[in-house]
Amino acid sequence: NILVCTIITLLSLIRAILLIFILFGFVNVTVNWTTGGINIDPLSILLLGAGFRKVGLYGPVLISVAIPLGAIIFMIKRKKWLTSRIENQD
Fold this sequence. Notes:
There is one protein chain. The chain is an alpha+beta fold. The chain has 2 helices and 4 strands, in the order αββββα. A hairpin with a 5-residue loop joins β1 and β2 (38-47). The protein is elongated, with a radius of gyration of 19 Å. The chain starts with a helix and ends with a helix. The model has no long low-confidence stretch (mean pLDDT 81).
């Protein structure tokens, strides 16, 4: 009983950490819509992987997109988890 509770707690902790990792995008790419300029920030973190901002009334529109590294890793691992679960059922 204690073993099961420990395993469930560890799995919940791993899922919580993975969820936090999925919410953030890394390697930010920003496009200046007005000038067409592109800026790549390899050491940047963006919440939910996308952003939009306009500086002032007549300022440029900046659209930012980040690579959802956590989501990509989750999808790769998910496929492995599902195939291992199917193999264990047989």
